[in-house]
Amino acid sequence: FMFVNERKLFPEVHHHTQFSLNVYGGPQEASFDSISNLYDSKTIEECYGSDGSGEIPLMKDENGDWNIKGHSSRIVSVWWK
Description:
Elements: E1 2-4, E2 18-20, E3 30-34, H1 42-49, E4 76-80
Antiparallel strand pairs: 1-2, 3-4
């Protein structure tokens, strides 16, 4: 999961700093999900809880704030053998 600190979740870190959360396992078939441009960790849960209906949220909401809404279409599943 790739985050951007625009909402200053970590106040001591510059707001344009990007960081990621990665989970690695042993030698197996490689498969993982990726979600980018996250501004809050709750978006991950909303993406996985989404039924896929409705509009895919834009990066900013109607007020010009960073959008933290989730949608299942934001999940990119990657796998290879």
